[in-house]
Amino acid sequence: MRRTRVLPLAALLLCTPALVGTEPASAAPKAAQDGPLHILLTNDDGYNAPGIRMLYQRLTDAGHDVTIVAPLTNQSGAGTKMMSSTTITVKHPEPWVWAVDGTPGDSVSFGLSEVFADHAPDLVISGTNFGPNVAALATHSGTVGGAVAALEQGVPAIAVSTGGLAAPVPEPIFNAMRPTDDFVVKLIERLRSRSKSGRLLPEGVGLNLNHPVVGPDGKGTASGVSVTTQDPQPILKADYSDSGDGTWKVNVNVVSAPAENGGDVEAISADKVSITPISPDWNAGTVDFAKAAALLAGLRP
Prior knowledge:
By secondary structure, this protein is an alpha/beta fold.
């Protein structure tokens, strides 16, 4: 049965800081060692995009309890934008799907406040997005923005993207997404097996995962896994030309720059899976990189 809800923005804002009654969100997610994980799955391409539907199926097949709470329409490039109006329209087209007429951040906020009101999920996954979210692309990515919205509320989160800066687009693109989805399942099991506190990730730490497209058909196996930093290069540069009538033409070009050693661009360009620890704020040094690297050490594609 299809349902639509229009909620006042103020109600969502009031619900956001605490998720489970009066229990803070940071205290809520404690992943069980056995049984299914409760996962909120979002993206920036829209709730019915191929990437999110494929990852939903793969995670479900792996035995997890997955609920999609994602944008109603394509929100690529929305970054961390949230709450731009006083009401928000939410559709509920399937029992396990909620479609929010807003950004990935709005979707996660609604999901944590309403859909998971009784108990925060063990994990929020944002993706899989087709196209890389490395270097400056990650800063402006709606996929990464969805993960950041979860981290802000104390819930472990992983942003997932498929592709490289110069990778060919295989036909069909589903071929490239399957290795990514398989790796996500493997990553979750690794995090679960090494969890000591009941949390899948240390407090305030998320992961930005970029999986390469390997081979012309996208079915190839990545050459390894690297725990990376975010490359500082801008990647994209916009050039503007005045049309003389108050409008400007915009041409966006890829900026060629040497990849930083140990960065996400270097890893994805070498056909390696890049996993970058991220934090929900912009304070330098807030992520314990060594602890995150130790958690992921030895992980293979």
